[in-house]
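I hope you will forgive my troubling you with a question about protein structure. I set the record out below, with my sincere thanks for your time.
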Amino acid sequence: MVETLKKPKRPVDSIAFAHFRRGRRVLSQAASLALCALCLLLDFSTARHERAWAQAGGSYTFPETGKTVSGRFLQYWTSHGGLPQQGYPVSEEMQETSDINGKSYVVQYFERAVFELHP
């Protein structure tokens, strides 16, 4: 006699797992929405700063660090990524001698960059 195999009934655990997976997907969508809202808030914060920098003209003192960026460094900073790309200034402008050619240059340090003025 040949026995045919019957498909086993779906166990309760797999049904619960399917609901868990579906619930996780909904949680993931909620997390995505929260992340989008956070990005919008950060974008508005950066836009507020950029308006202040544009109005400052020649120089801007960052209240977060108390350091001032001015002139060509401020122009470059605002046109090449600003806060997200360069970060806050962590020093004032200063003179440094280059190890490469021994010449003195005006430099300013930022969280993620060092600006060096080559006239």
About this structure: The chain has a mean pLDDT of 76. The two ends are 97 Å apart (CA to CA).
